[in-house]
Amino acid sequence: MSARARPRPTPDIALLVTTLVLLVLGVEMVYSASFVVAQSEFQDDTYFLTKQVMWAGIALVAMVVAAAIDYHRLERISGLLMLLALGALVVVLLPGIGSSSYGAQRWISLGGVLQVQPSEVAKLALIVYMSSWLARKGPRVKELTYGFIPFALIMMAVTALIMAQPDMGTSFVVVVTAACIFFVAGANLLHFLVAAAGGVVGFAYLIVEAGYRQDRLQAFLNPWADPRDTGWHTIQTLIALGSGGITGLGLGASRQKFYYVPNAHTDAIFSIIGEELGLVGAAAVILLFGVLAWRGFRIAFRAPDAFGRLLATGVTCLIVVQALTNIAVVTNTVPYTGITLPFISFGGNSLVVSMVGVGLLLAISRYDGVRPVVRERQESVGKLLQRKPSRRRVAASGAGLLSQRRGRPIRRV
Predict the structure, then answer these.
(1) What are the CA-CA distances from residue 53 to residues 47, 102, 400 (Å)?
(2) Could you tell me the sign of the dihedral formed by the alpha carbons of 313, 325, 41, 250, in that order?
(3) What is the spatial distance between Cα 154 and Cα 145, in angstroms, rounded to a whole number?
(4) CA distances from 42 to 112, 340, 347 (A)
(5) Of 9, 80, 129, 206, most Cβ neighbours within 10 A?
(6) How far apart, in Å, are the Cα atoms of 180 and each of 187, 195, 310?
(7) Where are the domains positioned within the chain?
(8) How far is CA 116 from the centre of its chain?
(9) Spatial separation of the C-alpha atoms in residues 9 and 367, rounded to whole Å
(10) What pTM was estimated for this model as a whole?
(11) pLDDT confidence of 384, banded at 50, 70, 90?
């Protein structure tokens, strides 16, 4: 590898700054949205803040480590990562091992101190595996039996395990992210459209199959039909957003966090941002995610190889799709589903996975400029191979070799 082809010492600075701004804003908003609940239930208004700061420190270290490694190494262990993720998704469903909350069994408790959410880890493992798997297939990804059917079977297995918890929000994000990777890898457009239609039908069935999901759909269509029960969450988040106006009530001045908005510091934290920082603050958060999407897709476009391109695409789509889904839920653009806002919502698992994803993007961005060098060399070699030496040159080179062997000086013919 030439000097130009070596990774640069500095990664994408714009992506790094954007991520750090979102992280700092998240720590501040977690405290603002949670201190009422923390004081009431734990007699410590910094209870959630302390935990979030601890997780932010761990996430920063994880991001630095991910940014420092050669991302190509992940390609070699992608299969092992996927097997471990699938194993964790199975283990969390076993009685006595998985921890339940709000009717969902999504966590594995480690020593009663740390809770791991396998579905969060599975997001990243699936992206790494899909990127490696599809990169190896190359143009054959367009084939039905070699590309589409294996992809569909893998997605059905992962989605089924996540839905068994149940967790429809994560399932949706995982499916959309994997579909983006599949599309960028060069999937047959007809196969892709069939898969998209099948996904829509599948999620529609899952909605009508469960009674509580039907209630959420009704609340989405008309939250005022049952304002004290199924429509409560939607109505309160909309009140919070509307109360903020253009500039907001001021940081810490939210009224809806006083047990009006459920899960104000987790799933619904964007509504508190809108209430305290107003339309300006909410738009700024959306703009920050827009910058992250721009830098992420730019890194994917300039990646030196197929694996890097697909990996950067998958990580960027994961963060952006999850952010858009959370914001869409809070604004009642889509039916309610519990999903965190990356970098901002309270929660260690989601924060660490998001920061590791950014670390991988930073690692790939350090190889910006490798591909042109490789192309230049390939083109030069190709031109040399295509050049056919003339008979005169062949005779000259042959005469020169004979003269060297006989000890005579080389003469030009």
Answers:
(1) 10, 25, 75
(2) positive
(3) 13
(4) 17, 22, 17
(5) 129
(6) 10, 12, 9
(7) 13-368
(8) 18
(9) 10
(10) 0.85
(11) very low
Most confident of 2-16, 166-180, 278-292: 278-292
CB 121 within 8 A of CB 353: yes
End-to-end Cα, the chain, rounded Å: 39
Which residues lie across from 110 on neighbouring strands?
114
Contact (CB, 8 A) for 158 and 122 = yes
Rounded-to-integer distance, Cα 70 and Cα 52, Å = 29
Tens digit of pLDDT for each residue in 49-80? 999 999 999 999 999 999 999 999 999 999 99
In degrees and rounded to multiples of 5, residue 101 shows phi and psi of -160, 130
3-state SS of 154-201 is HHHHHHHHHHCCCCHHHHHHHHHHHHHHHHHCCCCHHHHHHHHHHHHH
Separation between Cα atoms, residue 330 and residue 270, nearest integer Å: 7
User: How far from 18 is each of 21, 68, 211, 250, 296, CA to CA, in Å?
Assistant: 5, 19, 40, 23, 11
Among the listed residues 23, 29, 17, 21, the one whose alpha carbon sits nearest the alpha carbon of residue 55: 23
Report the greatest alpha carbon distance in the chain: 104
342: preceding bond cis by omega (within 30 degrees): no
Span 140-193, pLDDT tens digits:
888 888 888 998 899 889 989 998 888 888 889 999 999 999 999 988 888 888
Nearest to residue 311, comparing CAs of 112, 88, 12, 73?
73
Q: Which residues of 300-313 are buried (b: 16+ CB within 10 A; e: fewer)?
A: bebbbbbbbbbbbb
Edge-to-edge strand list for the sheet holding 98-101? 98-101, 104-110, 114-116
